[in-house]
Amino acid sequence: MIVKVIIPAFNEEKSIAKVISDIPQNVVSEVIVINNNSTDGTEKAAKDTGATVLKENFQGYGASCLKGMEHIKKSTCDVVVFLDGDYSDFPEEINLLLEPMVNDDYDFVVGSRILGKREKGSLRIQSIIGSLISCFFMNLFWHVKYTDLGPFRAIKFDKLLELEMADKWYGWTVEMQIKAAKKGLRIMEVPVSYRNRIGQSKVTGTLKGTFMASLIILKTIFAEKFKD
Predict the structure, then answer these.
(1) Burial class (CB in 10 A: 0-12, 13-18, 19+), 182
(2) Is 16 a residue whose pLDDT tops 70?
(3) In the chain, where are the structural domains located?
């Protein structure tokens, strides 16, 4: 199974090398870091640690993920793993996401921070509440049981392409989860560990970031419902 990792990164100079170094090299064939307008040494740190580095000028999490997908289309890939560049996830737990695919042929596996072990203070209360509300609506509308919108996730690449992902902002994770449910993919959540990130969060670290992310996520949910 050919596995590739996509890591969107904006000013993660202090953490990106740690993230890349902890990815099991015997499992992953390529690590792709998307430099999303960083003003620090993120790009150099990622290159020095052996990653493929791409640039995305449109400022947005989803835009970075889409850039990584376009790169992967040029080669062979079975599974894509999405991972944050702030070292809050545990990259060495990638196998926890891949095992249900290998053993039970699941299409999409979400790493749940809610179900896993969390370092004190690592998951802010606004993130927990936001996930609970979002998952409630997804369960209500599409009858799929999610507990989290965690960024640490794995999906078969051909299935990902079928989803026709479009969101360029904070709605990327919830869009993927909704479309996976609507497409009837075999979905599973697994508990993953979570720790305090290096540096300040660009989303939940500010009032504006929290508000904008919440607004976009809810807009994505109801827009997908109205399409039904």
Answers:
(1) middle
(2) yes
(3) 3-227
Instruction: Calculate the CA 203 to chain-centre distance.
Output: 14
Task: State the CATH class of domain 3-227.
Answer: alpha beta
CA dihedral 28, 29, 35, 41 (to 10 degrees): 80
Q: Yes or no: say if 51 and 33 are a contact pair by the CB < 8 Å rule.
A: yes
**CA 193 to CA 173: how far, in whole Å?**
18
Distance CA 132, CA 219 (A): 16
* Crossing angle for the helix pair 207-227 and 125-142, to the nearest 10 degrees: 0
Tokens for 1?
Answer: 């199974």
Tell me, what's the pLDDT at 10?
A: 96
pTM flag (> 0.85): yes
Contact 135, 177 (CB under 8 A): no
Query: According to the model, what pLDDT value does residue 185 have?
Result: 98
Among the listed residues 110, 84, 116, 117, the one whose alpha carbon sits nearest the alpha carbon of residue 198? 84
Q: Which residues contact 90 (CB under 8 A, 6 or more apart)?
A: 22, 192, 193, 194, 195
Mean pLDDT of 1-7: 97
Q: Is 107 exposed, middle or buried (0-12, 13-18, 19+ CB in 10 A)?
A: buried
- The encoded tokens of residue 61 equal 């999490």
